[in-house]
Amino acid sequence: MNCDEAEVLLHALLDDELDAAHAREVEAHIAGCPRCMAELRVAREMKNMLADTELRFAAPPQLRQRIEAALPRPRVSDRRAVLKGFAMGSVVSAIAATGIFAVVLRDDGEQRIASELISAHLRSLQAGHLTDVLSSDRHTVKPWFNGRLDVAPPVIDLTAQGFTLIGGRLDTINGHAVGALVYRRRTHVINLFVAQAANAGQHSAGIGTVQGFNIRRWSDRGLNYWAVSDLAIEELSDFGEKFESAMQAG
Known about the structure:
Blueprint: H1 3-14, H2 20-31, H3 34-50, H4 61-70, H5 76-100, H6 108-124, E1 133-134, H7 138-145, E2 164-173, E3 176-185, E4 188-196, E5 203-210, E6 213-220, E7 223-229, H8 233-249
Antiparallel strand pairs: 1-2, 2-3, 3-4, 4-7, 5-6, 6-7
């Protein structure tokens, strides 16, 4: 385990959220790494500081009364206009969201798959579920998939581009076993799900937001790719573009 891998799991170790095997790996690394030991010390001090009850403050009831008194009271006609504005804003937002994600969610089946992708991403964030093989070495991660899937997913090292490979695991999407490659961007986790495609052609990328998470989807060389993260859309797009570029170059 290196520092990048340990950094992802430090807070989970501090909160007792790791399984025994991963906890031992992180503890063994920290024991011989002054940098990660210092990171853990800072995180522990921050946790203890935030747990201090003296930091909590309850606003007095008089403050709410003063705020409410200072707010202008809208007339009935104004209130109706405000409600209409909210309704129209919701419709516009829904249309915009649908338009952004039109390439990805073309029918009910793809909406179901998107929901499963989000569920798989959330499961992976639980202790002990993120990786089956924990390594930043693509030559370790890729062979691990051999024999476990009909087609092993391509594993690209994007560390130099700011996306650190953490490892991989098996997951299930739409009733089929798929490979999941795990990357880290600062404190954000990116799950890249890879599955065989029905058609071997290349399809342009689509990106959008589902349940508060961003998904970027594309297809290439007989494989479907879904990158899922709470990372900003722009950065997730950048991840996908760099992955595609590396595939074309390689």
